[in-house]
């Protein structure tokens, strides 16, 4: 079992979690920044996290793990490996989430939907619709991080590895600005692990 602190430690080590002073694309400032995709650079750490999350779905009869391309493909693959299941991914075709590449789901088969991070849950909701359209059963949603504060309603129970709230501030009312901490934009070259 990984504790929350151990998960956060993996996030720091793999460059998922940044701590400092950030100007977000929303225009707001924050002392923390999360880029979940970065953990997928590291098979060993990604496996640790997926092993922990997959354990919560053992003995649920899951035969397929599915996630939205591109961001969730690696995670879906590892989760499927851990659960002895198949791995599929959905893609958008003309803006509509769908199963391509002759991927199929059997009516009644139990499917786990995965995503690295959930905020509003938009794309997860669309994947669940695809699963239902095929007559398969979305038994749950496994996410590494729930940033919705548990509020994302996606049509199946969400099981996060951890929940995470990031405080944001208006630039004119930011304690880090007041302390004179240099502000950086995530994704800029100033950010190096
Ligand atoms: Zn600030």
Automatic annotation (TrEMBL):
Pathway: Pyrimidine metabolism; UMP biosynthesis via de novo pathway; UMP from orotate: step 1/2. Its cofactor is Mg(2+). Gene3D superfamilies: 3.40.50.2020. 5-phospho-alpha-D-ribose 1-diphosphate binds at residues 115-123. The keyword Transferase applies. Keywords: Glycosyltransferase, Magnesium, Pyrimidine biosynthesis, Transferase. One of its GO terms (biological process) is pyrimidine nucleobase biosynthetic process. Orotate binds at residues 119, 147. It is an enzyme of class 2 (transferase). One of its GO terms (molecular function) is orotate phosphoribosyltransferase activity. It catalyses: orotidine 5'-phosphate + diphosphate = orotate + 5-phospho-alpha-D-ribose 1-diphosphate. SUPFAM superfamilies: PRTase-like. Its EC number is 2.4.2.10. Residues 59-154 form the Phosphoribosyltransferase domain. Homodimer. Catalyzes the transfer of a ribosyl phosphate group from 5-phosphoribose 1-diphosphate to orotate, leading to the formation of orotidine monophosphate (OMP). Belongs to the purine/pyrimidine phosphoribosyltransferase family. PyrE subfamily. This is Orotate phosphoribosyltransferase.
